Amino acid sequence: MAVTQNTYTGNGSNTNFSITFEYLKQADVKASIDGTATTAFTFSNATTLSFNTAPANGAAVRIFRDTDISSLKATFFPGSAIKAEDLNDNFTQNNFATQETDNEVIAANTTAASAVTTANSAVTTANAATVTAGNAVTTANAATATANTASTNASNAVTTANSAQTTVTTYVHDGTNPAGDGVGSNPQGLAYAINTANTASTNSSNAVTTANTADTNATAALNNSRESDGQGGFTSAISKSNTAITTANSATTTANAATTTANAASTTVSTYVHDGTNPAGDGVGGNPQGLAYALNQASSAVATANAASAAVSAAAFYTPIAALANLPSSPANGDRVEVVNSTGVESNSAVSGVPSGFVGSTDLTIRLQYNSSTSKWAWQQYFAADPENRYATSYLPVIKGDGSFSGQVGKITLNCSNNNHGVAIQSPPHSAGATYTLTLPTGLPSVAGQSLTSDTSGNLSFTTVDAAFMETPQTLNTSKVIAANTNAGMMGPTVTLASGVTITVGSNSRLTVLS
Fold first, then answer.
1. β-strand partners of 42
2. C-alpha torsion 467→472→477→483, nearest 10
3. What is the pLDDT of residues 273-283, one digit of tens each?
4. What's the DSSP call for residue 509?
5. SS3 of residue 102 by DSSP
6. Which regions of 404-486 does DSSP assign to beta strands (E)?
7. Coil, strand, or helix at residue 410?
8. Engineering a disulfide at 189: which of 171, 322, 351, 375 sits with its beta carbon 3.0 to 4.6 angstroms away?
9. Structural contact between residues 332 and 303, judged by C-beta atoms closer than 8 angstroms
10. C-alpha angle 414/419/421, rounded to 5°?
11. Each residue's pLDDT tens digit, 61-77
């Protein structure tokens, strides 16, 4: 079978794929990735196809020939010359188209055979499902019989419960229903027992109260009439009264002494411990540091504490979260968060007010505040998690790419004064594998119109380019590739290629050496 296609598996970095089949023209070579046709490719040379972007890892890459047969490669007219090259082109065109049709028929037959196998497998599975469904019906019937038995048992249980409820209502209830209270022909149940116990409790309490009253009255009568003298006799109430008078006089003397002591204490209190309005004890000048001083100090401390509390209340506290995916699901108005990883904030629909041109990153922290009227997290500010690494502040800064094989490369943009235009310098793509340094000239051009050129070490200098001459080194030390459909020229008569140096001429291109 003739080869009319090549298939590969992408690895996320490789863009160049070999073409091993013949073709008449580049337009007949087609490509697809994961079954989707694409034209995003060029020809590095006649046998190499280069995609603009490397196919993803695991992607199915197909490069195939689809010969144009809308018209013959060559048309002959009466009287015209018939060249072998034209005949061969026509036969090759027909041969290629036949090969492609043959391969498509073979592929269709293979697909049809696979479909038949799949259909047979489906029939087998359906038959098995039919058997399983029959078993399920049998199981369901058995379950129905079990359910009917359970229903009968439940009905019997209800009957038994109703009978028990009747018994409870008659003898054991809440004590308020006449049934079971023993009145008339009612049975003596719980109500009867409760009523009898309550009556007994009331009678018992009344008896205790009566006994306590009798005891108190008897004790008072005995104390008012006489008192034992400790020698078998008794002291009359009059004698007891005289003794009490003597005791009262002694108490008066003691009270007078206590008054003197209290007056002295009052003086001390007036000096040190008072209502805080008297200057005494305020610690001013020669005054002692008493309660007034302490109150003044306390008032000052309270004022300072209140000011600190107000400052704390006014300060904006932000709750740290790892990323935008961790935004609170039910925020309150005014809630604030500090998002450590701001990746994707520029396109997040839950955030409003993101500055134009700002792109979130793992090393940029942002602050947001929730606005309940808009149901959005409003932009507040941003800052770099590590400014020394984020901004070019050291003598060897590195402007990093996004960390992927085919994403954004390191890039520096110099904006205009209004920040709506900018000129950028960026690195080549990852696929280039480029590592080099360009060193700027030590001074400005010596004359107007000079161009910035580089030597092989990346040292830049200003050079005058003479438009009247085209110069070619007699020995080429760097390999050259002439793109497809491009004409190029070199000054001769001879040009020597250094060891290992090659010149690749693209498809439908021409290189002319002028002598």
1. 50
2. 80
3. 555 555 566 77
4. -
5. helix
6. 411-415, 422-426, 451-454, 460-463, 475-476, 480-482
7. coil
8. 171
9. no
10. 65
11. 999 999 999 888 888 88
